Amino acid sequence: MNKLFILIIIVALGSMLYPLVSSFDGNSELSSLAQFYAQPDNISKVNSPNLVTAIVVTYRGLDTMGEVTILFLTAAIIAFFLKKGGTTRTLRLNSEIFKTSAKLLVPIIVMLGVYIFINGHLSPGGGFQGGAVIASAVILMLLASPNTKLKHNFFEALESTSGLVFVGLAALGALLGLGYLDNAILPLGEFGKLFSAGAIPVIYSFVGLKVGAELSNILNKFQSVQSDK
Amino acid sequence: MEYITLITGFLIILAGLWAIMTRKNIIRIIIGFVIFDTGLHIVMVSIAYVRGGTAPILDGSVSIADAAQKIVDPVPQALVLTAIVIGLGVTALMLAYAMKLHQEKKSLNIESFKDLKW
Question: Is B49's CB within 8 Å of A34's CB?
Fold first, then answer.
């Protein structure tokens, strides 16, 4: 009976969503906003081959700042919420293959993360993706050797510095009279090269460091609340 | 093409809602939220699709001059990037709550939490 009731709710919501599908007839051209971003003039003004990065870091950079703030807030709430020694953990012995391959893979995964956020303006990727890859290396390390103690203060310091540099670079654009979060505070360089697109690679690298440190901090928090009995 | 992804996205949303409403284990409810989230992302990306368009990354095949004719809409993709990160933060927060709830009652079954039920 209960399941039937839930099924009715699901079907009702599905029929509410149906007009959204039936009234959608696809796009044959870009929306006017995207057309503005894709104009040759505006592309060479930002000089970043990856337009998604151009939007995330420059045009809608303020949203990215809010997003980073939300992530920081989450980390802060989790740190406030989880107290040390709250739960006891049961450890399972890891196999030798897993431990050895984790040791081999962790530096490579961190390097891949750094590569992804440094090349964020050239190829698919960017600070958030690179930071998540770095955090995945950290979780692999924690799973392989559960007794690792991460340096909590280091991650905290890294995260705060990267956040400050991000806000500082954004404010520098306003101080130089170009506009908040303008990427032309550094030379724009040649289109498609690593050192191009002005401040975008710098900002995105710091966003990557910040996200990586923050997620690692959350994972570390989840691990450090567990104690051995 | 965009219809397939759009309908799949809506179906995934409904599947996530089903998981949220029928499961009893809190971890599974959280997984339901994540599935719901993923469905929303698929819907947003498929709305941005432009017929015959390619990824909004300019390289050998898409030059600066014909970018406006060849790429798909990059704005919703940037929004989805934001949404994924926020979703991650919310998921981490929900898992922290689940951990705290488990400390209280030593159980993850949603039916053992009746303190606010009346």
Answer: no
Q: How confident is the model at residue B30 (pLDDT cuts 50, 70, 90)?
A: very high
Residue B117 within a domain: no
**Domain regions of chain A by residue span:** 44-78+94-227
Residue with tokens 């700042």: A65
Question: Where does residue A85 rank: exposed (0-12), middle (13-18), buried (19+ CB within 10 A)?
Answer: exposed
B62 located within any domain:
no
Contacts of A50 in chain B (CB under 8 A): 56-58
**CATH for B45:** 1.10.287.3510
**Predicted TM-score of the model (pTM):** 0.82
Number of domains in chain B: 1
| pLDDT of amino acid B72 | 83
Least reliable range by pLDDT among A160-169, A186-195, B88-97: A186-195
For residue B47, CA distances in Å to A143, B37, B50, B54 come to 39, 16, 8, 14
Instruction: Please report which confidence band the pLDDT of residue A1 belongs to, taking 50, 70 and 90 as the band edges.
Output: low
Question: Do residue B103 and residue A29 have CB atoms under 8 angstroms apart?
Answer: no
Measured between beta carbons, the chain B residues lying within 8 angstroms of A87 are 99, 102-103
At A191, list the tokens: 């289109």
Determine the residue of chain A that is closest to B18 in CA distance: A10
Q: Do B59 and A192 touch (CB under 8 A)?
A: yes
Considering the domain boundaries, does residue B61 fall inside one? no
Segment A28-51 shows an average pLDDT of: 78
The amino acid sitting at A43 is I
Give start and end residues of each alpha helix (H) in chain A. 2-22, 32-37, 40-46, 51-53, 61-81, 96-118, 127-144, 152-175, 200-224
Name the residue of chain B whose CA is nearest to A8's CA. Answer: B18
Range of the domain at B105: 2-53+68-112
- Please state the rounded mean pLDDT for residues A203-221: 85
- Report the mean per-residue pLDDT for chain A: 82
Which of B50, B56, B88 is nearest residue A27 as measured by Cβ atoms?
B50
